[in-house]
Amino acid sequence: MFIINCPYCGEREQSEFKAGGEAHIIRPKQPTELSDDQWAEYLFMRKNIKGIQFERWVHTHGCRKWFNVVRDTSNDDIKAIYKMGEKPPII
Amino acid sequence: MKNKYSLFSLVKNAFSYHENWEKAWKDPEPKKEYDAIIIGGGGHGLATAYYLAKKHNMKNIAVVEKGWIGGGNTGRNTTIIRSNYLWDASAGLYDHALKIWEGLSQELNYNVMFSQRGVMNLAHNLQDVRDLKRRTHANRLNGIDAVYLNTQEVKKFCPIINTSPDIRYPVLGGTLQKRAGTARHDAVAWGYARGADEMGVDIIQNCEVKGIKRNGDTVEGIETTRGFIKTKKIGVVAAGHSSLIANMAGLRLPLESKPLQALVSEPVKPIIDTVVMSNAVHAYVSQSDKGELVIGAGTDDYVSYSQKGSHDIVEGTLNAILELYPIFSRMRMLRQWGGIVDICPDASPIISKTSIKGLYFNCGWGTGGFKATPGSGDLFAHTIANDEPHKLNAAFNINRFVSGDLVDEHGAAAVAH
Asked: Would you say B172 and B125 are in contact if contact means Cβ atoms under 8 Å apart?
């Protein structure tokens, strides 16, 4: 259990949020052009990092807005939080 | 040759105050080269080594483990064993394991305390009832024992369940697999370690893998905290840390590692003589031989390697447990812990070759790997030794995420993932 500082609502318990997985996976611009390997890469393959991970969260039981979190997955320490569309911080 | 464990050896060692038992496995220094190396000294890894030595005559092999054997998810699960899976591929895989469980203590000469006390899965709504009936039929077509029970039969089989129609999630029925049950998780790791060691397998603990050396598309060995070890075949059985090992070899896996929690209560007299699982409210409970209630909770939805997990997950599980078993309301919980489980998008495992020659992965067991330990080891050993899968694990190849031929057990198995 940890605290997430929602950029819209402030600090709330993690149980109010839902994790949305790895951030900055870009949806293919022309899906019909993709090979099966490229589709598998986009749909299923994940970095699954132990350490600093860039990920998406949504404040399900609050403002219901999506945003990005930089978190150390080895100890759940949150390093940075930034809104959708903002440039990822360099960490 | 190791001395056999028997009543005679027990009596004999009693006379020397149990101070002269021989070591169950050695603590060897790593050799310069092995024919095969298994990364990960949990139940699955040790079983793989055991069957490689026993059935495929590969004796010059090693298991490398970064901590101590059985110290990861093998020692952190809720020890439930069952094979009542919906799809044919899963049924084949898990029932293969269950059949090995039935003779495992004798085979290993090590009491793994396998207890076929039955596993009951509850239905709480109409869709559950339909799903469980469908699964019962599917199980029976695959030769797996399964019966559907109505509410009264559930109550008769496990009298402490609250079957009142007035609770939030009333019990509408359930399924029962009588051959299912539990085993002693540590004993499984120790039994396989002892058996493998006896056949010459080196079990190397405190040896963390730092890199995988490749020559083009072929593996050459592993870099470890205890030096470089040369080998032509590497079997990775690293559970939650599989993605890290894959990364060392330049591979990507479709896994996400998440905390899964469990907890045990103070020990009490026998009160529940079976295993009861509930898919819809995600609570399952059994009682260990020590008398503790063993309670399994759900996974958190975020990637984490912290082996902790969130408190609200435990709270949700205990809410459900208390509603189903009001008799437990004054029980005190002794310990809670998390294990890091590697979950595939289809919640089925990967037991497979990879695009790199000599590199094999056995991972993605997610929340339910313990039950498969003997079968997983057997089939993975077959895959490594023959460089091709056994027919029972052919469907669990890594290419299914490219072909789309998934083994989608999400929610279709007995418990929601």
From this structure: yes
Residue B348, C-beta contacts closer than 8 angstroms, at least 6 positions apart: B89, B90, B364, B396, B406, B407, B408, B409
* Mean pLDDT across B317-344: 95
What is the spatial distance between Cα B156 and Cα B152, in angstroms, rounded to a whole number? Answer: 6
Once rounded to an integer, what is the mean pLDDT over residues B164-192? 96
Give the gap in angstroms from C-alpha B229 to the nearest C-alpha of chain A: 25
Residue B133 CB burial class (10 angstroms; 0-12, 13-18, ≥19): middle
Please tell me what DSSP assigns to residue B28.
P
CA distance A60 to chain B (A): 13
Strands B227-231 and B33-34: parallel
How far, in Å, CA of B160 to CA of B183, rounded? 23
Question: How many Å apart are CA B374 and CA B380, to the nearest integer?
Answer: 10
At what angle are helices B88-108 and B185-198 packed, to 10 degrees? Answer: 70
The rounded distance, in Å, linking the Cα atoms of A27 and B181 is 45
**Residue-range domains of chain A with CATH:** 3-83 (3.30.2270.10)
Phi-psi region for residue B206, left (φ > 0), alpha (ψ -120 to 50) or beta?
Answer: left
Using an 8 Å Cβ cutoff, are B96 and B69 in contact? no
Pick the residue from chain B with its C-alpha nearest to A52: B304
Q: Which residue of B has its CA nearest to A14?
A: B310
User: Contact B415/B284 with Cβ under 8 angstroms?
Assistant: yes
Query: In angstroms, what separates the C-alpha of B202 from chain A's closest C-alpha?
Result: 29
Is beta strand B293-299 parallel, antiparallel or unpaired with respect to A66-72? Answer: unpaired
Q: Does B312 touch chain A (CB under 8 A)?
A: yes
Task: Report whether B220 contacts B24 (CB < 8 A).
Answer: no
Q: Give the residue ranges of chain A where pLDDT is below 50.
A: none
What the block records as the tokens of B66 is 């970064």
Query: What ipTM, to 2 d.p.?
Result: 0.95
Give CA separation, B356 vs A45, B91, B217, B235, B250, in Å. Answer: 17, 29, 5, 12, 9
Minimal Cα distance from B316: which residue of A? A15
> Residue B199 gets which letter from DSSP?
T
What digits encode the pLDDT tens for the residues B128-161? 999 999 999 999 999 999 999 999 999 999 999 9
Q: Which residues contact B319 (CB under 8 A, 6 or more apart)?
A: none
> DSSP 3-state assignment of B260?
strand
B250 contacts in A (CB within 8 Å)? none
Q: How confident is the model at residue B2 (pLDDT cuts 50, 70, 90)?
A: confident
Going by the DSSP 8-state scheme, the letter that residue A25 receives in this structure is P
Whether A45 and B401 lie within 8 Å, measured CB to CB: yes
Whether B302 and chain A come into contact, CB under 8 Å, resolves to yes
